[in-house]
Amino acid sequence: MIRFTIFPRLLVLPGQKSNPYIQDFVSSLEQTGEAVVVNPPHKNPLFSLLPMKRWGDVFVFNWYENVPDYKYGPIQTVFALLLVLGAKMCGRKIVWVLHNKGPHRQEHVKQKRFLTRFIARHSDLILTHAREGIDLARRYDRRAEAKTCFLHHPTKNRLPKSRPTGPVMYDLLIWGQISRYKGVIEYVRYLRNNPCKGVRVCIVGACPSQSLAEEITRELTDTITFINRSPSFEELARYVEQSAFVLEPYKPESVLSSGTLMDSLSFGAKVIGPDTGSFKDYAQEKRLNVYTFRDYREIDEIVTRYRDCPVSWEGYRDFLEENSWPNFGRRVVELVKKC
């Protein structure tokens, strides 16, 4: 039985929402029957790893480079460095999951750059959900390519039992938490300055930044609907059914892989995203309807050209089952055994 420590395993209180990636990761490992996760959820997921009873045989670090953004960031940064060094000295394996090209928050840049290069150098295994991540890891540390492995971002099969037959209300659906790095305000401004396009857009997702929400609201036109709240997955399924495409207008500078992309595919959506990372990978995947853009004008062309292009339910189902969370957990365990 392989003992894992998963970071960050944050304690989620009732009524709170969090990124489900970590809990799905934990479940996928334990479902293999060959692994157990030894660190419980905690309100401070880094300092909670101080007791060695919470040290597994393998440490898996997600978003390690974001530690400087935490409360008491300088102290936690030092502890994060010492934790990796201490784990290595005690013979533990280090796995780093490379999620992004760079941190989305442009603060503490030097510390984050140092942490990124540090974890790339000291990891025994680097996992990335985009093929571009292999080249990126090599730029962080010239020896990293040999220990970097591409694994598809795991997902779930949420395909409806029957194909949607209702009317399409929107050309583009933008969903998920609304943050600066996702490029929503820039795309809304583009639409406002190009009113002849007439693309019907629905933006649904909670916007934690009041100032950003106000910016978006000021730029709305008659063809753009903005719903500032987080939808349930049941509601999201309906929005996807009512939309021709899901659009992710992310800024390409930081995005590498996307949970929103995978969740959209899980509902059978046709997806448009920037020509980078996993979007670029899946634009070449024949089983999926994923399209990429380099500038906003190309989005209009994609909508016009591929609006009526059918989705292969069989192709989507095959892809989703192949890249399920249980399969991901088994692949991670096998890779850890070899490293």
From TrEMBL:
Protein's organism: Barnesiella viscericola DSM 18177
Superkingdom classification of source: Bacteria
UniProt-listed Gene3D superfamilies: Glycogen Phosphorylase B
UniProt protein name: Exopolysaccharide biosynthesis protein
SUPFAM superfamilies on file: UDP-Glycosyltransferase/glycogen phosphorylase
